[in-house]
Design brief:
single chain; about 260 residues; mainly beta; Immunoglobulin-like; 5-stranded antiparallel sheet; 5-stranded mixed sheet; elongated; chaperone; periplasm; Ig-like_fold; signal
């Protein structure tokens, strides 16, 4: 157990590709790009499959947002069964995720992370000294969703509020999420007079385009140096519960509520 936890910290594969099957690497894949946990459900099943040609040892755990978490240090209101398992080549494994019922916000989603650590089998024989074996860790978002939210999740992106603000001697788009849902974005652009100004590249992978419920974020527009005149609109892409990318267009709001 301790050896696996150390490997989790040493080598982390964190690319969250928006595909129906999310690869941890060429071996084990996780079906889905996120986990939606309706709080009234007894459990949610997450499926994995070993597409490789060798057995894989997998360890799983959840954390509340600490990328340095290990199975020994992470504390969340979940149980995950089985926490450690072996998958033979071309075989599947179902993980059962259960929420403990611990008190959670009832007016908005809560976010946790599912960690899947794959450890390759030990190589034996004359080739062992010429190989470097790596463990791969993948993290998926787990959204705990209350049952009494006022509107469907698909309506949330259209309720984002956008404002053009001064930023570092230039301009930026300030996005306010007044909804009870966490909204994942993949692109943010400002269109003015036939020109497109895109947000600056992510400084940190993974989370810079995640707008938690009630959050406010600022997306720098490095190519926009003068305040635009005339009609201005925002184009952005959100990610649905099923991993699909959905395009949206919105106007600027006079103010952005916090």
């Amino acid at each position: 157990m301790k050896k696996l936890a150390c490997l989790a910290l040493a080598t982390c594969g964190l690319g969250l590709s928006l595909l129906q099957a999310l690869p941890a690497h060429a071996g084990v894949i996780i079906y889905g790009t996120r986990v939606i946990y309706p709080v009234e459900q007894q459990e949610v099943v997450v499926r994995l499959e070993n597409k490789g040609d060798r057995p894989a040892l997998v360890q799983t755990w959840l954390d509340a947002g600490d990328i340095r978490s290990t199975p020994a240090t992470a504390q969340t209101p979940f149980t995950l069964s089985p926490p450690i398992f072996r998958i033979e080549p071309n075989q599947q494994q179902a993980m059962r995720l259960r929420y403990s019922g611990e008190a959670a916000p009832t007016d908005r989603e809560s976010l946790y992370w599912l960690n899947v650590l794959e450890v390759p089998p030990v190589t034996t024989g004359s080739e062992q000294n010429n190989l470097i074996e790596l463990a791969f860790r993948t993290r998926l978002r787990v959204y705990v969703r209350p049952s009494n939210l006022p509107y469907p999740v698909g309506s949330a992106p259209s309720k984002l509020q956008w404002q053009l603000v001064s930023h570092n001697q230039g301009f930026a788009l300030q996005a306010t999420n007044p909804t009870p849902y966490h909204i994942s974005l993949t692109s943010v652009d400002l269109l003015s007079d036939g020109k497109r100004f895109s947000k600056a590249p992510n400084q940190e992978p993974n989370d810079s385009l995640l707008l938690p419920a009630g959050d406010v974020k600022v997306f720098a527009l490095p190519q926009l140096r003068d305040r635009p005149n005339g009609t201005v609109k925002v184009e952005f892409t959100s990610v649905s519960d099923y991993g699909a990318r959905v395009r949206h267009s919105a106007g600027l709001t006079p103010t952005a509520s916090r």
